[in-house]
Design brief:
Strand content: over 45%
Number of domains: 2
Number of strands: 43
Structural class: mainly beta
CATH class of the largest domain: Mainly Beta
Radius of gyration: 28 Å
CATH topology of the largest domain: Maltoporin, Chain A
């Protein structure tokens, strides 16, 4: 009943705003750049009247309550040539126009200038958000995980090299609490082969990182924040192809292209291929080989990983129409991805596998439609729908056990995974997922906007294992289902000549899970039974930004956030992760407060930022420490509290030198005073295990062509990443002299780039982990050491 009241409230506001607008003569228009991207903050004046308005985030402006007649408009914005246009109001209730501004800086490409404008627009939102302009990095060889790990407040923990599992943390909340989006579409059910780290940097325009509070328009239950990859949306036809070769027999190929005819017919693609043997050296704790007498060989000898190869490809194509009268975007998409990889270790490096393999296939047709001025000139619509099929198979049928030298140390084994009571297994599952997303943005007045978003996702799983005998695998062979509904409403108002922006929002979440369980069910004998779990929850929030004189800005955001369990958490993965039908939704009070300062001169620019954050989380969902027979499952952790801050500075001088530095401190504590059985919690107020709390990054970039006025484009970068040591387990448990910890990580990268042929061709050489440090993130799972790469890129526009 509450949801229907919520829906009818939206309809009433939309109808009321429409009726109010149609009682007056109105001039409505859009101001765009040369690539048809909206310009935020452009000034429009009616000459000889003194009436002045500015464009909003969609490039829209409006003059309301004016009399009929001819008017001459002057349109201006920093960095663009001023344009004048004559319009006639009165023949229609609403006169709608489109104005294109041309760059005033001939030396700059318009696409770069517009990119900076969009980046600035996103940063000025009331939310705590960072933006990475990926176009500046297109020539580099850089992993998405590595790039985002250098952002303040963000930590990416990986279990190995290319294709390994990874976990994102933003301001202390991690795992599935951090949502990944591609062009605003949630990726949570797209499989691991179509993951964020497989995207090549030159297929992306920008990356938006929202910390804590996430805009309603995304439609996700992002409890801890979200990351949105914005793929290339150039209006001009282009071709961008790159090939990278690197250490450990690593190769990357990326293709991004678009062709649009005069009729608006459009074909575009973002596709990539990744391969690596991942045969990098490992040594130290957990990497042991027995010598004579069965004792480990002393001296920490090095061994190469040998069953860790990874191959994946993604083919993504869209066909349809763009920038036509009836649609801004109408595209039928098709995505096909495939993955094949070896599984080298378990949850620690003490268990090494020689024959375990995982294969995955993913196929997804999709349809997207968006239109500014749909039905009414001040209503924008964005619709998306997709269905996908994901098939995954884990094969564990070896009769051998291996050590780190790659030698067989035992025969007649019953599979390699799941400890001494393991059984051979060929577990296959098929997930069928439907996703529907609808977003409506209605501009009531020039400074008032409402946004309604709705997302439905439903996943059905079927499992099969013809040879497994372990009883804990029985439930995973039966059908399981999970469906989620997410709705959100926001009301945005700008005051004081758009210097003070406020957003009030509400979100509604509901889910229903049907899971097969194999348990005692209250009796003395185990039995198989179906368990249905459903829940719903509301979330409310507020975000505000205030632009002060002398280029100061203040931001504040608050949300009583919620997150629903995902398919992996509820249904398990069929091998090492059991299903968890009793998971409860996460709840968290998220608060962000920040101050930003811009110091701008004729030849240099400095941006400073300080963000304070607080998280009070209940029923935190995390992967347990281990359950039985080498398996684990997701569990709720009663209460956690996070207090921290992040600071960053970005400096540039004469386009030839740029530098950035950031620092993050987060204090995350277990605040569950008592266990569920009433006993005192021995880790009460402990720091969260296996979670870093001090992090820092720095980078310098030199553009030698700008510094020395030379024609070829030559660039250089050097960066450093620091993570302070942290305990692997709970700090208060165990003997202090025997506690395991993740050692301090201090790693440096560098690269040199050269572009020629008016930027069409580029070569970039880089080196990661220059000093070949031994680096870990999780449970002493060692990551690659020194890594060299060479990237060749061809770009034609």
């Amino acid at each position: 009943m509450q949801f229907y009241r919520f829906f009818f409230l939206i309809v009433f506001l939309a109808v009321y705003g429409t009726a109010d607008a149609q009682n007056n003569v109105t001039i409505i228009g859009y101001v765009l750049g040369e690539d048809n991207q909206p310009l935020d903050g452009a000034t429009i004046r009616i000459l000889n009247t003194g009436s002045v308005v500015k464009t909003n985030g969609t490039g829209q402006f409006a003059f309301e309550n004016i009399t009929s007649g001819k008017y001459r408009l002057a349109v201006s914005m920093d960095g663009y040539r001023e344009e004048e246009i004559e319009v006639k109001a009165g023949e229609k209730k609403k006169e709608e126009i489109i104005i294109i501004l041309k760059s005033a800086l001939v030396a700059l490409k318009s696409v770069d200038l517009v990119g900076k404008t969009i980046e600035t627009k996103v940063k000025e939102q009331p939310f705590a958000v960072s933006v990475i302009n990926a176009k500046k990095l297109a020539e580099r060889d850089v992993d998405m995980n590595r790039l985002l790990d250098g952002t303040s407040g963000v930590r990416v923990q990986e279990t190995g090299g290319m294709g390994s599992d990874f976990n994102y943390s933003i301001n202390g909340l991690s795992g599935k609490a951090v949502k990944i989006f591609v062009d605003g579409i949630p990726m949570e059910n797209f499989g691991s082969s179509f993951s964020i780290n497989n995207f090549a940097i030159n297929t992306i325009d920008r990356i938006e990182i929202y910390k804590g509070v996430t805009p309603v328009a995304f439609g996700g239950d992002a409890l801890g924040g979200s990351i949105n990859l914005v793929t290339k949306t150039r209006s001009k036809n282009y071709l961008d192809i790159s090939q990278t070769a690197g250490s450990f027999n690593t190769y990357r190929t990326a293709l991004s292209a678009k062709w649009r005819g005069s009729s608006g017919f459009t074909v575009q693609t973002n596709s990539f291929f990744n391969y690596s043997e991942n045969n990098y050296p490992v040594w130290g704790p957990g990497v042991q080989v027995a010598g004579e007498g069965g004792r480990p060989i002393p001296g920490n000898p090095k061994f190469k990983r040998f069953n860790d190869d990874y191959r994946s490809y993604t083919l993504r194509a869209d066909v349809g129409f763009t920038n036509v009268k009836w649609a801004d975007v109408f595209l039928l998409g098709f995505t096909l991805s495939d993955q094949d990889r070896g599984i080298q270790t378990g949850t620690t490096m003490a268990h090494v596998y020689g024959d375990v393999r995982y294969q995955e296939k993913f196929i997804m047709p999709s349809l997207r439609y968006s239109k500014k001025g749909f039905l009414f000139s001040n209503l924008n619509v964005d619709l998306y729908a997709s269905i996908n099929e994901l098939r995954g198979t884990t094969t564990d049928t070896s009769s051998y056990k291996y050590d780190w030298s790659g030698k067989v140390i035992a025969t007649a084994a019953n599979g390699e995974m799941n400890s001494y009571k393991a059984s051979k297994s060929i577990y296959s599952f098929q997930d069928d997922t439907q996703l529907v997303r609808a977003n409506f943005a209605y501009q009531i007045k020039n400074n008032l906007q409402i946004n309604l978003n709705y997302v439905f996702s439903g996943t059905s799983r079927k499992g099969n294992d013809p040879i497994a005998t372990a009883e804990w695998t029985i439930p995973l062979r039966f059908p399981q289902d999970l469906s989620k509904h997410i709705a959100g409403l926001s009301y945005e108002v700008s005051l004081l000549d758009r210097r003070w922006t406020n957003i009030f929002f509400a979100k509604y979440f509901a889910y229903d899970a049907s899971v097969t369980s194999f348990d005692y069910n209250g009796g003395s004998d185990k039995e198989l039974f179906y368990q249905n779990t459903s829940d719903n929850v509301w979330a409310f929030g507020y975000a505000s930004t205030f632009l002060l004189p002398r280029k100061y800005s203040l931001k504040f955001s608050l949300e009583n956030a919620a997150r629903l369990p995902e398919a992996l958490e509820v249904l398990g993965n069929g091998n090492t992760i059991l299903n968890s039908p009793n998971l409860q939704p996460e709840r968290s009070l998220n608060v962000n407060a920040s101050i930003q300062k811009n110091i701008e001169g004729n030849f240099q620019n400095l941006d400073l930022g300080l963000n304070l954050f607080f998280r009070n989380t209940e029923n935190f969902i995390w992967l347990g420490e281990g359950y039985q027979l080498g398996t684990t499952k997701y569990e709720n952790l009663g209460k956690t509290r996070t207090i921290g801050f992040e600071a960053e500075a970005n400096y540039s001088r004469k386009k030839g030198f740029e530098a950035s530095v950031n620092f993050t401190y987060q204090d995350i504590r277990n605040m569950q005073r008592f266990e569920t059985n009433g006993a005192p919690n021995h880790v009460y107020k402990d720091r969260l295990r296996n979670t870093p709390y001090i992090m820092g990054n720095a980078e310098v970039r030199l553009f030698l062509d700008e510094m020395f006025r030379i024609k070829p484009k030559v660039s250089f970068f050097a960066s450093t990443h620091y993570v302070h040591q942290y305990y692997l387990g709970w700090p208060s448990l165990g003997n202090p002299s025997q506690k395991m910890y993740i050692p301090t990580q201090f790693v440096q990268d560098a690269g040199l780039g050269y572009a020629f042929g008016q930027g069409r061709y580029s070569v970039n050489a880089s080196c990661r982990n220059i000093l070949n440090k031994q680096v870990y993130d999780n449970f002493l799972l060692q990551k690659p050491g020194r890594f060299f790469s060479l990237k060749l890129r061809y770009f034609l526009q």
